[in-house]
Amino acid sequence: MRVKDQSGFSYIDVMIAIVLLMVGVLALMSAIAGAMIQSKGQQQQIVAKEIAASTMESIMSVKETDPVRLGWDAVGNVGSNIVNGVPKGIFVTGMQNVLPNAGPDNIIGTADDAGAPLSALQRQITITDQCDPERPSYNCPTPGLSKVRIRAVEVRVRYFVGAIAREESLTTVMTDYAVVEE
After folding, report:
1. 112 within 8 A of 122, measured Cβ to Cβ
2. CB 76 within 8 A of CB 150
3. Is residue 153 helix, strand or coil?
4. Of 100, 93, 71, 113, nearest in space to 154 by CA
5. Phi, then psi, of 180 in degrees rounded to 5
6. Closest CA relative to residue 81, chosen from 143, 26, 151, 136
7. Lowest-pLDDT range, 32-36, 76-80, 165-169?
8. To 10 degrees, the CA torsion angle through 135, 139, 144, 145?
9. Residues 129-161 pLDDT 10s
């Protein structure tokens, strides 16, 4: 037999109602926390996309803006693009902390970048020589003597939402073909 108070509810009924109310409140708090994490994740995703895009622009500008000092031979990872026994590639390899400022060379993604690392952001630049079957180079299935004229470029930016790592990636192909007008 249940003991009921003046309202007609037993203490067990009241306890069950409190438990159900607490479950509802906890579910609501969980939904709010999830929405806040998702919002933070979207902000980080936008920042990661912007970093990837600015890095890609920097890589493309190396080829075009200072062909005497840099040019096509500089479009590569450190230790690559060997010309007369000297590696000419300038972009750092592996996953690196993102530094906000270009260094003295005014190029983002090189070893001389400066500033305090952006929190929870890392970047990887991968530049790979591609085979041009019409002008075979050393990296073609049937190696040739032509200079490498095609490179695949991938910029990956890792960001964290809480403890979860996510990545944004931007990929393109660059060529070193001149357009000749006649």
Report:
1. no
2. no
3. strand
4. 93
5. -110, 120
6. 151
7. 32-36
8. 90
9. 999 999 999 889 999 999 999 999 999 999 988
Residues 46 and 59 sit within 8 Å (Cβ to Cβ): no
pTM: 0.77
Residue 71: other Cβ atoms inside 10 A: 15
Angstrom distance (rounded) from CA 73 to CA 63: 8
Which is nearest to 65 in space by CA: 38, 105, 117?
105
Sign of CA dihedral 133, 135, 136, 138: negative
Q: How many CB atoms lie within 10 A of CB 90?
A: 23
Q: Burial level of 1, CB count in 10 A (0-12/13-18/19+)?
A: exposed
The number of residues in the chain equals 182
**3-class DSSP state of 1:** coil
> Can you tell me the distance from the alpha carbon of 44 to that of 166, in angstroms, rounded to the nearest whole number?
9
CA-to-CA distance for 99 and 86, rounded, in angstroms? 27
DSSP 98: P
Closest CA to 122 of 63, 171, 165, 162: 165
Burial, 13: exposed, middle or buried (Cβ in 10 Å; 0-12, 13-18, 19+)? middle
Q: What is the pLDDT of residues 93-125, one digit of tens each?
A: 999 999 999 999 999 999 999 999 998 899 999
